[in-house]
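Why run this: before we spend reagent on co-expression, it is cheaper to look at a predicted model of the complex and decide which construct boundaries make sense. The entries below are exactly what would go into the expression plan.
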Amino acid sequence: MTAIDGTDDRSPARPVTLADLAKAAGTSPSTASRAMSGRGYVSAAVRRRLMEAAEQLGYVPDASAQTLKQRTSRVIGVAVSDLRDPFYAQVAAGAEQTLRDVGYQVVLVTDNSETGEEVAAARTFLALRAPGVIITPVGREATTLLRLQGVAVVEADRHLAPGECDAVVLDNEQAAIDAMTHLIAFGHERIGLLTVDTDWTSDAGRLQGYRTALRQAGLRFDPALLVKVAPHDSEDRIDRRIRDLLGRGGLTAMFAANNGLTVRAWQVLRRAGLRLPDDISLVGFDDVAWMDMVTPGITAVAQPTVDLGWRAAQLLLRRMRDRTLPPTVEQLDGRLVVRGSTGPPRRA
Amino acid sequence: MTAIDGTDDRSPARPVTLADLAKAAGTSPSTASRAMSGRGYVSAAVRRRLMEAAEQLGYVPDASAQTLKQRTSRVIGVAVSDLRDPFYAQVAAGAEQTLRDVGYQVVLVTDNSETGEEVAAARTFLALRAPGVIITPVGREATTLLRLQGVAVVEADRHLAPGECDAVVLDNEQAAIDAMTHLIAFGHERIGLLTVDTDWTSDAGRLQGYRTALRQAGLRFDPALLVKVAPHDSEDRIDRRIRDLLGRGGLTAMFAANNGLTVRAWQVLRRAGLRLPDDISLVGFDDVAWMDMVTPGITAVAQPTVDLGWRAAQLLLRRMRDRTLPPTVEQLDGRLVVRGSTGPPRRA
DNA sequence: CTGTTAGCGCGTTCAG
DNA sequence: CTGAACGCGCTAACAG
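The model came back. Tokens follow.
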């Protein structure tokens, strides 16, 4: 408990530089540079002396000087909507992990799904001379801005700037079709869709899949069964919208198109005293831990979240290696995990 | 779908510099610098011309040049154990949010609770000339290394380098006492503790609280009721340890000292067909969403996770402003959320 | 109020 | 194989 060191900074602690190493080892700074970077000739003996000096003095190369000189940094920008959302946190985790393993630093910025903040993030990445950026985009501006400056960009989760950059996304339409087909097979005909009102490919794809599945089954698409919440709607507002949906005649099942909406739906259903799957069926999106823990478990589309970030990083590294490649879109597959929240409608 | 732009980099896109602005506005670089930074005199007319030029050319100051010159950056290092764990993700989210609001960039590094990786992260932060670092420490080395170079450090969640840096932690002992007291009040006497075998203050504090509560109630501390899993134990191993604990005679309740262990305990109990709280009571740690969704809900100690990151950032900013302050430890209070998983023992 | 000068730490010519 | 010289982009002194 007692402070041995105190917190005072007695050591002006000027960071040790290559010049210091050079002096200590009796060589010139440029030789020291070659020794540390491993590029260029330097005799084994001198190298060893330099290495020792570095070790001893605790030399840490100044990244800003390197960046300034080489006109590019080892920083990769990662911009996600919200770290508190496990989905984004996992994507970020996957990206950070793999980038760190190959010697990049991740500058992580959240943007609250606001284009303004996203563009600000892009400017930050430009200022840092980041050679690459991974982004869960909310608009095209940021990507365009970065691309204009020659920064490699990979969009993750949704693809808003096709042709301008690579992307790794879920096959949202197919995932939604799988979910819907599952419900339809039980005999459901009036199925509500909960989604977010954006122009993102993720939401659009899931809506598309919803419609496709209905059409393929010869069922009518009824706009009244569609609940599109605004991106920043409050829980209360969302819950109200969902309750309204429950009032719509004949509804026997719901498909929630992301993990947050699945939570809301589940809560509303529970409070309404409806029982899964007897009174209503529910399919969720993003297989989060709780979906396997509640009773009954929630049938849901599982997304490979960490993989998403991992693949985004791979794609980015590839792109930085060869900037002339044609834009690539990698689609990952969702996986429908069937649990107890889905069953035949009350009276089919 | 069709690419309008293609991905080719036709623009060599040399970033525009202050010199470019100066030329465009017919002034010298230093005047341009003053105009952009807002420091130093510059006539309104010239300033406006410069601003326009900046706008037009899309000037973005080179952070590495600034850092090199000013010998410090706007980068704050944040090192957490694992972004996939919602606890750490939220801490990081809180820190990132507030730091970004005051113009800092967060470099986020995960260290898998390995001292080696943690020290590597510290070196990264040194290389970036980060003026401050927030860390959920796994050892003292990283903090010491950083402090030696004059970097401001705040430890979050646990405090491993007392005297050397500020810290923001939960009042773990009190939180554990609250949890235990709750169980004891129901009449439980043989209560198992699930914790991680580290020398972290977090785990130590919770164990301490466990013992204190027992002692205050005049109950015997039985080491056989203690399960200390290793930091990187597999789920299977952990589950086996918990099952073993169940076999110990007379056990009527369990206290799991973090959210991961709470999940494991819950799963094991469920698989064993034990019913909460009739067959056994369970108190968890870290109030995660699922704990309120399962039936019965899990009584748990809620931690102010996002706040933790937020306060860590505040503390860091304060410290960077005044490095002579005495080391401060801020303790946040846990909050026991009582739900259905706790009740009187089977036969009291 | 403005321009000139110098140098932050490093990597990269280019001579030796 | 090594060292001297230069400049990356920016800002802090200092003159003017």
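Chain A has three domains: 18-61, 72-170+305-333, 172-303. Confidence is low (pLDDT under 50) at residues 1-10 of chain A. Bring this page to Monday's planning discussion.
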